[in-house]
Amino acid sequence: MENLKITSPIPRHNSPPPLVRVSGTHREIGRQIGQAFIGPVKHSILNARKLLEMTYSDLELTWEGALIQARKYMPFVQERYPQYYEEMLGIAEGADVPFDDVAVVNAMEAVTMDALHLTKCTSFAVNDDRTADGHVLLGHNEDWLPDDEADVYVVHATPEDEPPFLSMTYGALLCNVGFNALGIAQLTDSVYPGDSRIGTPRVVVSRAVLGARNLAEAIRATLVVQRAAGYNHLLAHESGELYSVEVSARRFGILYGEDGVLVHTNHYLDPKMQAIEERSDELISTRLRFYRATRLLKRTQAHTIKSLQAILRDHLNYPNSICNHYTEDISPLDMEKTVNSIIIDLTARAMHIAWGNPCENHYFTYHLEA
Predict the structure, then answer these.
(1) DSSP 101-122
(2) Domain contains 14
């Protein structure tokens, strides 16, 4: 592992991200989240507005324009996933903010037409054949706007009509990164298809995966009809099955975790998906992180939580490293850092989270009690 002296300021968190336990209908779940995190919800909306102001010369999109654009996507959510539309309504009610503001946050990638260069998340998984204790483990660095780091929290949810789940999220964003009580875990990474359209936003599609009752249902959820675009969905099952489902608005590719290891960053790997990838020549750092994480994972035959933490702290190619850092001279379109780092022990139904850059912050443990 490369040793590197970090010169830019790194936020340090001496306490774990806050946790809220919610239950009931989807409207009630959203309302409880909004009430518990009024500050983060409002702060994330303010950050979204500031981002559009900072990038206006490039995007030519005002907040009023974003509200108009986001409204175009909501009928697709209401038709296909009314329960998650209810969750967004509940968040708005609980935090006492306009629903349209919550809609923009959950459709930000769509309304900006992917002009934000969000290309720095790293995800991977190892199954029971490649761990010292026979557990299925996943690792993920969540890279997003530095100002949203303060808005990170954890949700322990018990919906009345879906499996209980444990998820990391922030601000007004729907839950999507996490795992459920039936042994299904999901990590998401932004990718850049050229066939985007108005439809169900990516975040809502990924929220549906946490409600899946088996692996096939989880994969089908990522491929919902009339989706706006797509993420890469790295999916793991407690049996040790590992899949990456690369999605665009009209196409998909499925990759299997060969030899008990699976890695994904922010570019397509399936050749037919690569054919529709936009700006692939710009996606350099994502390829470097992919190969770096793959090498580090294959170097160890029997992984532990600590060995995965070491990979998530890696600084090769700093600042655009696996542990990603923000520098002052970066363009607003590229303004990202690792806002939290996650290791999921799917076998133990546990999530270990470092709030902020994992190179400077400790991991705290949360359990799904179902």
Answers:
(1) HHHHHHTHHHHTTT-S-----E
(2) no
Query: Which domain does 129 fall in, by range?
Result: 19-367
E strands in 89-183 = 122-126, 137-144, 152-159, 165-170, 177-180
Tell me the pLDDT tens digit for each residue of 65-109. 999 999 999 999 999 999 999 999 999 999 999 999 999 999 998
Residues in the chain: 370
Is 42:148 a contact under the CB 8 Å cutoff?
no
SS3 of 258, please?
Answer: helix
- What total number of domains does the chain contain? 1
Q: The pTM is what?
A: 0.94
Residue 166's φ and ψ, nearest 5 degrees, are -125, 130
CA separation, residue 265 to residues 112, 119, 191 (Å): 21, 8, 8
Question: Torsions phi, psi of 182, nearest 5?
Answer: -95, 15
**Can you give the CATH number for the domain in which 312 is found?**
3.60.60.10
List 363's β-bridge partners, or say none.
354
Percent of residues, the chain, with pLDDT higher than 90: 86
